[in-house]
Structure formats: C-alpha cells, structure tokens
C-alpha cells in the first residue's frame, strides 16, 4: 500500500471522541487503586499492607462504578459500540496485549507459584493473601489462601463490572435481570455459601457447579470425602451434584436451552458477561473457527467422561485397572483443562480472542448442554428476514462466534449448540428481528413470523 493510500485510509476513519475530564479523573483513580494493590503485595508490614489493600479496593471499586455511570448512565439507553474497533484496548492493540499479559501472568502465579509452604508462605502472592486473613477468619474461621484471594477478586470483578452492565443495558429488561442473576449466584452461592459451610466445619461445596464442569464432584475420592466429612449434609451434596448433572440439567435445558446455566448461573459465564463484555465482539465468526470449536470441545467432554468412568472402575476394583496411574490421569486433566485452558487461556486471553474462549472451545459443561440444546430443547432464536437491514450488529455482539446476520437475512431460526442464549443479538438489533423463544418442538427448524404463546421476547 502506498503512503498516499495509507494516509487516505487513516483520514477515512472517524476520530475517537475526546475523553471528558471526569472520565480521565476516574480512570486515574482506578490506576491509583491498582497501584495501592501492588504496594499491599510487597509491603512487609502486615498492617500497612492490609490498609493499602482495602484502600486500593475502595478506590478502584468506587471509581469503576462512577466511570460506568459517566460512560453509560448519562447517555441515551441502547447498545452503543463506542468505537470498539478503533480503541487499542478493544481491538487487539497494544493496550489489549498488555492487559492479556497481566491477566495471564496473574493466573500463572496463582496456579503454579502460590502453593503454600510449611510456614504458610504463598510465594509472590503471599502479601496479598495474608492481607485478607481477617476477612477470611470472619467468614470461614481459617486464614486466607490463594484460592480465597482469587475468589474475592473474581467476585468483586463480577459485581463491579455487573454494575457497568446494568448501566449499559438498562433499556433491556432481560439483560438487567440476567446480569442481576449472575451477580446473585456468584456472590451468594459461589462465594459466601462455601465460606459459611467451612465456618460450621462442613466441607467446602459449590452448589452452582456440577459435573462435568466441576469434574471432581462425582469422582470417587471427592464423594468419599464429602460423605465422611459432611455426614448427612455430605450425602446431600453428592445427591445434589448427581441430580443436577443427570436429571435437572436435561429437564431445564429441554425447556430453556443452555442459557438457564451458561448465562444465568455459571460463574465462568458470569465473569464473561460482566468483566468480559467489552471484548465480546472479538470472537472469531469464521467457519474455520467453528470447525476448531467442534474438534476441541467434544473430545474434551469425551475425555472427562472417560476419566470419570475409569476412576470409578479403578475404585470399584481397588486399583486393578489403573493402579497408581489413576491419580496421574486425574492430575493431567486438572492441569491441561482445569488450569491451563479454563484459567490461563480462558480468562487471560479475553482482550485478544473474546470473552467466551473457554465456554466456546473447552468447557465440557457447555458441550453437554449444547448437545441437549441442539437435539432435544424447545429453545431457539427466531428471525424475521423481511425486517433485517443487514447492519451486522447481531453478529458483532455474538460472543460465541455465530454469524447471526446470515440467519437473520434468510429468516431462519438459530439453533446452534454453542449459543448461550445471552440475548445480546436481539438486544442490539434495531428492528426487532430476533426473538428468544421456548416454543413447541414441532416446526422448530422452520422460520416463525410470530411469537409463540410461551415464548420469551427480548425487550430491546
């Protein structure tokens, strides 16, 4: 490309709007909050480190909420793309790469460089972990560890960025309720309740995670641990996990599709829908990406099924099948899928590959729900091709890499195993072309020019 052509292309791009002084101030405060967290991480004085941590969390949390209101609350309601493809932070630019490196580095430290030694030292995260000791003692009656630190930051990210989502999508009743749902389940069931169980000397248990996502909950070692240490409550935990995995999940997916879990309950989805929302447009919509999705996610589901079956057979026959290799098989899956894929890649690559990398390519629960949704569910997204203006808003906001516009142009219903039912395509459509429905299975693969009586229309 010649220099004159490049200059002409640069001139053709609209300039980014100026950032107001108020927004710059809040961004500065957020930066100061993160700086205070760094001070807490490396300050040898425990009291001063704790003060720095709480000051940093207060500064960054308050500033994020104020920034969200300044950015979205003062503007007219509606999905606004806000020059996403022009900003370095949301178009795989330098800022996005820095963010990806920081996130990936944090997960690497968390998984492999923060295991405690005999003195309770958590490596490079030791300072941050121990600043939360009073909070952990109050909630769980035990000192903090690296996973309590992670859970605290994880929950705070969902709550704060959930507040941002509420401002941004306040015009859509569906999005508001859905966002409140993931915030509620993360705070109540994935953070507070496990801590309360530990406070009363019961096994830590997450009622919103089931097999095959929480793969160890139905493995022999975990089942024995829950029954022996939780007694009656432990038996209920095992029963709950089995019922939710094999009975409730198929029933709920039949009626509502995989959205009942992936977009309303799951903590992984909750982080993707809140903290990952600025990156949803980065998901690859190509057919090649879809082929890789199929090649990866279903073998992972098959692998955890195989691991579960082999572990139980090995348990029943007292090690006659795998022997000591059983523990190695379990650790291999936990390392490759549970740590590298779901953590390091699944979250660390948000700014580069979009917010649903793990859900789209690796999550065995998403694969399980997707098969049910594709072949047995009443759920679909209906389209009205006569009203479609081919603006592409629906495809741009689809975090699962579905080219929604192609379906809308043809007036075909969208029945895809990967669709998590977030409803953002319908919320972003300026013509009301797309509707999420739970209609009868008869005629499910045919276009529907009207809304069925028991369907759920997205208010946009």
> Helical segment tally?
19
Strand content: under 5%
Q: Please identify the structural class as seen in this structure.
A: mainly alpha
State the CATH topology of the domain at 378-460. Answer: Alpha-Beta Plaits
So, CATH architecture of the domain at 378-460? 2-Layer Sandwich
Q: How would the global form be characterised?
A: globular
Main pleated-sheet profile = 2 strands, antiparallel
Mean pLDDT: 89
Structural features, described:
- One of its GO terms (molecular function) is 4 iron, 4 sulfur cluster binding.
- It comes from Hymenobacter metallicola.
- InterPro entries: 4Fe4S_Fe-S-bd, 4Fe4S_Fe_S_CS, Electron_Trans/Redox.
- A two-stranded antiparallel sheet has the order 1-2.
- It has helices at residues 3-12, 21-42, 46-73, 94-112, 126-131, 133-140, 146-168, 173-199, 220-256, 259-262, 267-274, 287-316, 325-348, 350-353, 357-361, 364-376, 393-397, 404-410, 424-428, and strands at residues 379-383, 434-438.
- The protein has 19 helices and two strands.
- The protein starts with a helix and ends in a 22-residue tail after the last strand.
- The radius of gyration is 23 Å and the shape is globular.
- The chain is mainly alpha-helical and 460 residues long.
Topology:
Layout: H1 3-12, H2 21-42, H3 46-73, H4 94-112, H5 126-131, H6 133-140, H7 146-168, H8 173-199, H9 220-256, H10 259-262, H11 267-274, H12 287-316, H13 325-348, H14 350-353, H15 357-361, H16 364-376, E1 379-383, H17 393-397, H18 404-410, H19 424-428, E2 434-438
Helix pairs in contact: 2-3, 3-7, 4-13, 6-8, 7-8, 7-11, 8-11, 9-16, 12-13, 12-16
């Amino acid at each position: 490309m010649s220099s004159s052509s490049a200059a002409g292309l640069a001139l053709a791009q609209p300039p980014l709007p100026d950032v107001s002084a108020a927004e710059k101030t809040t961004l500065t405060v957020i930066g100061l909050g993160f700086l205070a967290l760094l001070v807490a991480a490396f300050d040898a004085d425990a009291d001063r480190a704790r003060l720095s941590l709480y000051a940093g969390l207060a500064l960054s949390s308050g500033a994020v909420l104020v920034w969200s209101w300044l950015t979205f609350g003062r503007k007219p309601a509606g999905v606004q793309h806000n020059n996403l493809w022009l900003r370095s932070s949301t178009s795989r630019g330098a800022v996005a790469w820095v963010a990806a490196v920081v996130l990936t580095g944090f997960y690497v430290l968390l998984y492999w460089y923060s295991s405690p030694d005999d003195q309770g030292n958590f490596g490079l995260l030791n300072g941050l972990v121990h600043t939360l000791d009073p909070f952990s003692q109050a909630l769980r009656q035990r000192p903090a560890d690296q996973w309590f630190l992670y859970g605290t930051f994880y929950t705070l990210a969902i709550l704060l960025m959930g507040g941002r989502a509420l401002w941004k999508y306040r015009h859509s009743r569906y999005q508001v309720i859905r966002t409140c749902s993931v915030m509620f389940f993360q705070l109540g069931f994935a953070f507070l309740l496990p801590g309360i169980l530990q406070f009363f000397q019961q096994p830590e248990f997450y009622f919103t995670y089931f097999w095959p996502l929480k793969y160890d909950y139905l493995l022999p070692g975990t089942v024995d641990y829950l029954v022996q240490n939780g007694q009656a409550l432990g038996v209920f935990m095992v029963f709950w996990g089995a019922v939710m995995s094999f009975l409730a999940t198929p029933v709920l997916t039949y009626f509502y599709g995989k959205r009942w879990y992936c977009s309303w309950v799951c903590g992984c989805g909750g982080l993707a829908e809140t903290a990952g929302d600025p990156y949803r447009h980065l998901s690859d919509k190509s057919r090649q990406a879809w082929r890789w999705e199929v090649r990866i996610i279903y073998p992972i589901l098959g692998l955890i099924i195989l691991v579960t079956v082999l572990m139980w057979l090995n348990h029943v026959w007292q090690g006659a099948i795998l022997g000591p290799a059983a523990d190695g098989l379990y650790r291999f899956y936990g390392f490759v899928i549970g740590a590298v894929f779901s953590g390091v890649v699944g979250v660390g690559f948000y700014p580069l590959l979009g917010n649903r990398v793990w859900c789209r390519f690796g999550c065995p629960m998403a694969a399980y729900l997707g098969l049910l949704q594709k072949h047995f569910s009443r759920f679909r997204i209906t389209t009205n091709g006569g009203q479609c203006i081919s603006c592409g808003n629906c495809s741009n906001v689809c975090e699962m890499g579905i080219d929604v516009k192609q379906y809308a142009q043809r007036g075909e219903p969208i029945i895809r195993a990967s669709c998590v039912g977030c409803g953002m395509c319908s919320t972003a459509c300026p013509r009301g072309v797309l509707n999420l429905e739970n209609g009868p299975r008869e005629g499910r693969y045919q276009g529907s020019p009207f809304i069925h009586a028991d369907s759920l229309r997205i208010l946009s």
